[in-house]
Amino acid sequence: MRTAETLLRVLPMALCVAALVIMLKDSQTNDYGSLSYSDLGAFRYLVHASGVCAGYSLLSAVVAAVPRPSTMSRAWAFFLLDQLLTYIILAAGAISTEVVYLAYKGDTSITWSRTCGSFGGFCRKATTSIAITFVVTLCYAALSLISSYRLFSKYDAPVAYSNKGIEVTTFTS
Questions:
Q1: pLDDT-derived band of residue 85, with 50, 70 and 90 as boundaries?
Q2: I need a labelling partner for 67 at 20 to 30 A (CA). Which of 8, 46, 50, 102 fits?
Q3: Residue 48 contacts residue 104 (beta carbons within 8 Å)
Q4: Of the candidates 26, 30, 153, 152, which has an alpha carbon nearest to the alpha carbon of residue 96?
Q5: Does residue 128 sit in helix, strand or coil?
Q6: In this protein, which residues make up the domain named Casparian strip membrane protein (predicted)?
């Protein structure tokens, strides 16, 4: 199980690096001008999110690979960080998808023209990077399920009672 989890933690790192490199090299110049990933805030966010996720994937794979007894704090850390990174990379993919959709279709109500007709290579690379990002999201969703199962199957939820007989959740270490 440890080997499978470690490999599942390494896979998003490789995919994030691939998405990051594709997006970093995504620029095109033609008669209409030039377009680069850095011109669009959503793509800059995707690059940063991919970098953070790749770093976390490497670090978490190293920690998961080292045979140590599981502690509650370690289980909570994996659970919370896996959840956080899942939502970060999902948000990056979602907002970038919206920008690419507008680049392909345009929106006449806000005078956003179809730019993919003129910058087709740029749009294809961006679409590839976004598709890889959604595969990363699936990997992180699986990791989130694994870490939540580990946490909640091994440790009971901390429950205490207040002096009024009301059940109150407390966290102790």
A1: very high
A2: 50
A3: no
A4: 26
A5: helix
A6: 2-138
